[in-house]
Amino acid sequence: MKKIVIGISLLATSLIAQGRLTAIGGANYSTIEYNNTAYDEAIMVDSRLGFFLGVESKPNPIVLGAAYAQYGADFSYTENTETIIGYDIYNYLVGYALYPFFHLSKFSAFGGIQAGLSLGGNTKGNVSDSRFSGHINADKFAFDYGAIAGVDMAISPTFGIRGFYYYGLADVMDLTTSDMNFKNRGIGVLLRVTP
Predict the structure, then answer these.
(1) pTM, to two decimals
(2) C-alpha dihedral sign at 163, 40, 119, 142
(3) Contacts within 8 Å (CB) and 24+ apart, 40-43
(4) Contact 161, 155 (CB under 8 A)
(5) Which of 8, 23, 114, 147 is most buried, by CB atoms within 10 Å?
(6) Count of domains for the chain
(7) For 106-138, how does the pLDDT look when each residue is reduced to its tens digit (9 = 90+)?
(8) Which CATH number is 39's domain given?
């Protein structure tokens, strides 16, 4: 897996240097939405900051991209007399296609689709006075997909800023007995660099 990631990184770096790809990176503020009311009453879920790093190409007018994205959530709940506070981070290799449907001077609005393959994740937290941490295996997650919408702003011919909202449609927990319908949701702010 490490060799594949290193190989893809070297290829992407070469293509960026040749001016054929745009580098993107920034913050992704995400959470998990779910539909289980019993679970909702027991656990408080809040947003978690992660990052989004990738490359994209623009075969006019569509923008195609691939990125490493972090989703996740902060959580807290009380069980018996103990309070558990922690967070989960979910890592994804995502691909997306964006279509700009409105242009005004240096601004453009877009909509599109995004799909992601889980790379696993991590969980960390505290139970009373003790700490816990662990790795979350990729096979615990299903294929993720959803809609993405946002705005691009050109700062110069080389630099730009993107703000977006990702609305996950897939139940990402690959548990056949789960009826919680976990969905990734996130807001991102990215810097775009085109050599």
Answers:
(1) 0.81
(2) negative
(3) 42/77, 42/79, 43/75, 43/76, 43/77
(4) yes
(5) 114
(6) 1
(7) 999 999 999 999 898 888 888 877 888 888 888
(8) 2.40.160.20
Q: How far is CA 69 from CA 96, 104, 156, in A?
A: 12, 29, 26
Amino acid identity for residue 66 in this structure: A
Quote the tokens at residue 194. Answer: 């085109």
Residue numbers of the domain that contains 27: 2-193
Q: How far apart are CA 169 and CA 113, in angstroms?
A: 10
Contacts of 73 (CB under 8 A, 6+ apart): 30, 31, 32, 45, 46, 47, 48, 87, 88
Token pair in block for residue 26: 């920034």
- Cβ atoms within 10 Å, residue 10: 10
Amino acid 11 reads L
| Cis geometry, peptide bond prior to residue 61 (ω within 30 degrees of 0) | yes
Give backbone dihedrals phi and psi of 81, rounded to 5 degrees, phi first.
-115, 5
- 19 C-beta neighbours (distance < 10 Å), count: 9
